[in-house]
Each structure stands twice: as C-alpha cells, then as structure tokens.
C-alpha cells in the first residue's frame, strides 16, 4: 500500500494556486494576439487555455510524486479542464472553457445534494478527519455549501454570457475562489458551537 506523504504547506498552495494564476498571466500576455495554426486563427484566450492543460497536469504529477495521493476533487477538476480545454481548441470556441466552471460548481452542488437527499453529509465523509463537528452541524454546513456551489454555478453563467472575456477571466481567477473561501470560512465560524464536542462517556 502506498504511504501518504506530507509536503510543505507553501509548496502545496503553489501547486494548487499556480495553474490558475499561470492561466491568468498567459491570458494577459496573449489576449491581444492572434495565432495561426493549420490555416486557422486562434485567439490568445484559446492558446492560453491549451497551454493551461499541461500546466494542470504537471502540477498534479508533482503533487502525486511528492504525496503519493490525489483527491477525487483534483482528479475531477483536471478531467474537466482537459475535456473542455480540448473542446475549446477543437471548435476554436472559448465558450466551452467558460462553461467548464459552471459544470464543476454544478457537479459539486449536485453531489452534495444527492447526499442530503439520502440523509448524509458527504462533506463529513471528506473532512471529518480534519474537523471535529457534530452530525447536525455537518448537515447544516453541507446544505449551505451545496447552495453556495449552486450560486457560483449560476453566477458563472451570468458572468460569461453577459460580460467580456476580460471580466470573466478576472472573476474566474480571483472572484469566485475568494468568494468561495470567504463563504466557507464564514460558515465554519457561524457553526462553531457544533465543533465544541464534549465527551459524555465519562
């Protein structure tokens, strides 16, 4: 059995945040350019998307080499990036990559929603080893996070359909992650009373 390894927290953040920041930098660098491949013109956004795919795979490979572990969320997100990145390049249509965010957030909301319908918290399954919380707290948190993911999915649809690519890239890179982090942090703070577990077994 492969043993999980711990890595430096700073390096972990670099591997997680590096790819989207790299995409953002590539987009800013290439957005005014047009590239000719196989007799077809591609925008800087399309080229940045294509380059983004191997960057994501490289970050995952380094993470695997160092920890011998990849989360289901990492694998799913990478699959979505590869799939929609390929569609974006094949059809030369940036809308595919923009829709990817909607589907990722929507999938997470759907997954948590299925668990709630079954009376279970999949968040507890994923995070209970790291966070001690009463079952009632996990169910409340799961409902709120499910709603949060659904809201982000809808927000992404509104943003990419009504705003410029420039605005979408900035919101995708910074706005949505910051909003999600702040929302989750606020929920843990609001549910702090459910974390005060007492041992009643004596």
Automatic annotation (TrEMBL):
UniProt keyword Phosphoprotein present: no
UniProt family annotation: Belongs to the YciB family.
Function noted in UniProt: Plays a role in cell envelope biogenesis, maintenance of cell envelope integrity and membrane homeostasis.
Keyword Membrane in annotation: yes
PANTHER family found in the cross-reference section: INNER MEMBRANE-SPANNING PROTEIN YCIB, INTRACELLULAR SEPTATION PROTEIN A-RELATED
Short name of any one Pfam family annotated for the protein: IspA
Main location: membrane
Encoding gene (name): yciB
Coiled coil: none
Lineage: Bacteria, Pseudomonadati, Pseudomonadota, Alphaproteobacteria, Rhodobacterales
One GO cellular component term: plasma membrane
Protein name: Inner membrane-spanning protein YciB
Domain of life: Bacteria
Membrane-spanning ranges: 14-30, 42-66, 73-91, 103-125, 174-191
Keyword vocabulary terms for this entry: Cell inner membrane, Cell membrane, Membrane, Transmembrane, Transmembrane helix
């Amino acid at each position: 059995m492969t043993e999980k390894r711990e890595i430096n927290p700073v390096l972990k953040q670099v591997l997680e945040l590096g790819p989207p920041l790299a995409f953002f930098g590539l987009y800013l660098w290439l957005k005014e350019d047009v590239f000719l491949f196989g007799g077809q013109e591609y925008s800087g956004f399309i080229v940045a998307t294509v380059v983004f795919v191997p960057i994501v795979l490289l970050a995952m490979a380094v993470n695997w080499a160092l920890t011998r572990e990849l989360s289901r969320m990492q694998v799913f997100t990478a699959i979505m990036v590869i799939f929609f990145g390929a569609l974006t390049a094949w059809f030369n249509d940036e809308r595919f990559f923009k829709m990817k965010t909607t589907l990722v957030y929507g999938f997470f909301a759907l997954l948590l929603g299925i668990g709630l319908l079954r009376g279970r918290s999949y968040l507890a399954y994923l995070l209970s080893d790291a966070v001690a919380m009463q079952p009632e707290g996990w169910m409340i948190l799961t409902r709120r996070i499910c709603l949060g993911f659904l809201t982000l999915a809808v927000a992404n649809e509104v943003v990419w359909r009504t705003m410029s690519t420039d605005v979408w890239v900035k919101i995708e890179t910074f706005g949505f992650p910051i909003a999600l982090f702040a929302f989750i942090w606020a929920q843990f703070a609001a549910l702090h009373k459910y974390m005060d577990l007492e041992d009643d077994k004596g």
